[in-house]
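Before a colleague's protein record goes any further, I have to sign it off. Would you go through it and say whether the fold makes sense for this chain? Take the sequence as given and treat only the tokens as open to question. The record follows directly below this note.
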Amino acid sequence: MRWLSNLLKACALLLLLLALVAFLLPGERSLHRSLDIRATPQQLWPLLVEPRRWSAWSPWHQKDPAMQQHFSGPQAGLGAQWNWESSIQGRGRMHIDEAEAAQRLVYTLHFEDVDQQARGAITLQPLDDGLTRVDWSFSMRLGHNPVMRWFGLGLDTLVGRDYEIGLKRLAEQVGSKP
């Protein structure tokens, strides 16, 4: 029975150590992906500024086609909002905070299951030869929750791949090959 007591003490010590180390980890994480797409900013803009059109290119809708969505506010632009509920993607909402026509979209995400908020932005930069550089970024404050701080270490790997898929699907929506 002594070995069980020692094992429990070791586990408790390990958990305490992990919690303490978590506070040394960054309190904010961000990621960024970009893709040059053969389309004008004006061609891409409606797919970005209208939340109802995100399902055509968003990687999360592809992961769960049964995702329930509810839209509110204006159909597009500043104030447009959608809520989602998914057995795979969880529950949350997105609200468009800024919309500079065919240039920049800024939005807030709230992940209800973990009570976390994040900011996202998509910028469109026209390039030569009919290309547009689409930059998609995401940042999240992780707070004092040790589990979220550890989660933050893998954020780029976990969510970054989704952003890459989303950008490629966005390109396909306008008939461009990434």
About this structure: The first helix runs from residue 2 to 22.
